[in-house]
Amino acid sequence: MKRIYFIMLLILFVSYTGNFLVFAQTEKVKSVDGVEISFDMAGNGDTGLVFVHGWSCDKSYWHNQAEFFSDNYKVVAIDLAGHGNSGMNRKDYTMELFGEDVAAVVNHLKLNKVILIGHSMGGSVILEAAKKLGNKVIGIIGVDTYQSFVDNWTSEQKDGFLKSFQDNFVLTTKGFVRSMFPPNADTMLVNKVVDDMSSAPPEVAVSAMRNLFYYDPVPTLRNLNPPLISINCDMYPVSIEENKKYVKDYEVKFMKGVGHFLMLERPDEFNGLLKGSIAELLNK
Predict the structure, then answer these.
(1) Total count of domains within the chain
(2) CA separation for the pair 57, 98 (Å, rounded)
(3) What pLDDT is recorded for position 152?
(4) What is the pLDDT of residue 25?
């Protein structure tokens, strides 16, 4: 009986912390500034799916997708600098340098046909990566990101928001992350994500958030050709028509009743939407 109970606990733990067994291999490569970037790989296929996590997360947040897509694609999940198992010897965590992290992995693996998939802050990161990778990128998929490409916050608003993280990172992050889940979200999942993200290195997290707040995607978007699809929750409004002014081929899909971490909250539904989006990009 004790053995059965232990196995059940182990299954629950793996379900909410990331099933690393689905990845066949873990490697590291140096980014443009010498920081070591850790990445996991699984599967085979002509097309590479490159998954990029969001702010204060890591590559384990994509474990449900690695298992689902590795039969037909080369699946790669990356730890950006300062996150997960990647190096922390970087002074400023900018979207441009994060993009270099992704490009370093893609070039190291000699992937010539990739779809970049980025959650939250990762959406900005993959725009920069796409700029650096050029024709290797056949499509871009954002996950609960790209709500608006135009920034409407003042510098005072941004700095005021950042100050709360600087003053008490753990407490502020816990409240911030909880607010991104709907009231009916699974409590165990919410607590796991809250505890995980609030344990991030504050110096990395604040630097990344500051650079995200002051990042302008429009110049990069105007020079990108790959089609862009975004899969978003319905908690936040999306400026669809405004966004279309900056992207030649843009589409957004919604999942109802989930929060910011839709790939964790309802992975089967999310994987179905992602599968369809990948098929659309491959057929363009």
Answers:
(1) 1
(2) 13
(3) 87
(4) 86
